[in-house]
Design a protein that fits this description.
Elements (H helix, E strand, L loop, with lengths): L21 H14 L3 H15 L4 E6 L5 H9 L5 E7 L2 H10 L1 H5 L3 E5 L10 E7 L7 H13 L1 E14 L3 H17 L4 H11 L6 E2 H11 L2 E9 L2 E7 L1
Parallel strand pairs: 1-2, 1-4, 2-3, 4-5, 5-6
Antiparallel strand pairs: 5-8, 7-8
The structure holds ligand GEK.
Length: about 240
């Protein structure tokens, strides 16, 4: 059963910066589903684009896999095919949980969960790379260097599926979207106090880019056919090809 996120409710909360520790891993499915508009759809898109662009005998990467929700879609989309799925996260709590949840798939050799910083991950022979709401936790230089390695390690015709929280070139629009996001969370049962404590904890930890910067960066690295395939308030999913 999915455990409800009450980390920032009442006395359980602390004032530390947000981190993907044991406490967060335990409630992560509920937390991300109630916090990120379009999260469930982003997972469905990962399956749809993997069905279309996965190439037999290549690798799929899930960079910043958390509890393996996107990995699960990669597994489904490559069922019965020669594929290797490599899922990476630098949170021990997340990777330990994945190793328990996906023990059977791990035994079959189809998937591997690695505790590693994605700034160190080597990408090779990939037809699908998923970065689902993770780039936002890296520094600007790390974002570029990771995407360069993703491009280098991708086979022609491969696809990157990238979802991110973003901001806009008008401050007014950014604030209006942020307010709507706030209401989205309130609709999902978070109190004003929880929303504001979580926002404080994420300050300096989650740093958004302009939506347009994502396009520019991907195109200047060499990615082709960079397409926006979904937006939900201040969240966006792009697909980019090689
Ligand atoms: C999903 N993709 O369910 N190296 C490795 N992992 C990292 C790093 C890093 N440098 N920085 C952050 N992470 C998932 C959701 S959550 C998104 C991704 C969110 C990991 C971090 O430990 C966490 O598990 C994940 O990236 C971000 O589709 O919480 O907004």
């Amino acid at each position: 059963m999915i455990k409800k996120d009450s980390i920032y409710k009442g006395d359980n909360s602390n004032d530390l910066p947000f981190s993907f520790n044991e406490e967060v891993a335990e409630v992560f499915e509920d937390m991300i589903d109630r916090s990120v508009p379009g999260y469930a759809s982003s997972l469905r898109l990962i399956k749809i684009f993997t069905n279309k662009y996965f190439r037999e005998n290549s690798n799929c990467y899930d960079l910043g896999c958390s509890l393996g929700a996107a990995t699960e879609r990669l597994l489904k989309a490559t069922e019965g095919k020669e594929a290797k799925i490599i899922a990476i996260d630098n949170s021990k709590a997340m990777i330990d949980s994945c190793n328990r949840r996906y023990a059977d798939h791990i035994k079959s050799g189809k998937v591997e969960f690695i505790k590693q910083d994605i700034t160190d991950t080597k990408i090779s022979n990939s037809s699908i790379v998923v970065i689902n709401f993770v780039l936002q936790f890296l520094s600007s230089a790390e974002r570029t260097s990771l995407l360069e390695r993703v491009y280098e390690g991708m086979i022609p015709g491969g696809r990157l599926i990238l979802s991110e929280k973003i901001h806009f070139d008008s401050r007014f629009r950014t604030e209006a979207m942020s307010e709507l996001h706030h209401q989205f969370k309130a609709e999902n049962g978070y109190t004003e106090m929880e929303i504001s404590r979580k926002r404080d904890a994420l300050e300096g930890v989650l740093l958004t880019d302009l939506g347009t910067l994502h396009f520019q960066r991907l195109e200047s690295i060499g990615f082709k056919k960079v397409r926006k395939v979904m937006t939900n308030l201040n969240f966006m999913t792009l697909v980019a090809g090689k």
